[in-house]
From TrEMBL:
The keyword Phosphoprotein applies. Gene3D superfamilies: 3.40.50.2300, LytTr DNA-binding domain. This is Response regulator transcription factor. InterPro entries: CheY-like_superfamily, LytR-like, LytTR_DNA-bd_dom, Sig_transdc_resp-reg_receiver. Keywords: Phosphoprotein. It holds the Pfam family Response_reg. Residues 3-117 form the Response regulatory domain. It comes from the Bacteria.
Amino acid sequence: MLTVGIVDDNQLDLDKLELIVAQIPTIELLLKANSAEEVYTFIQEKPVDLLITDIEMPGMSGYQLADFIHLNNMHTTVIFVTAKSGYAVHAFELNVHDYILKPYNQERLVQSIERFTTKKAAGKITGRLFIRSGGDLVVIPKAEIIFLERTGRTTTIHTSNETFETYQSLGELEGDIRESMFIRSHRSFIINLQYVKRFAAYSKKSFVVIFEGTSEKALVTKEKLKYLQENYF
């Protein structure tokens, strides 16, 4: 069961959200609020899986609320439902799942929630990666892999505990990592989306990927970032 909170200072818009989510059998609506302050207090005690929020509200804004969630690494994902388009780029920096503009139809929101549910279920990474390194066969739990980097003739595998080097190519290893959270972000990188904190501007054609668990960074192309926005965030 997916736990959900909704917040909007406009009562009609809030009632519309409630009507839509109430029709989804896999959802438990834990919180309905007219202010971000109320949500801020609630989720510190009982985080919800998914928060659907307006952005511009009196007092604390939905953007400030999402920023608090992001900075504190809370296990709550945000969908913005707003009449303002100007926050879209900044919202993506907070790893929000979706940015829906008012007025919207029911199908648009339902599809977004279903996509999040699918992503959440697929995000449970299992299995192990076997690599050849220095004459040894090394076994690495896939859930610990942050990203893979090709440099010259070797591939470096960055994990939450240590790094490994192998002469196996990214193409070879990509075939062994058939998990939805692993994405070929660049010709030289495969990244694990579960560890991504944010994407920072780097050049006209690429962005730097900043991770949790390591100070090392990867690259993602502009085209791949657009794909991630449309399908993952």
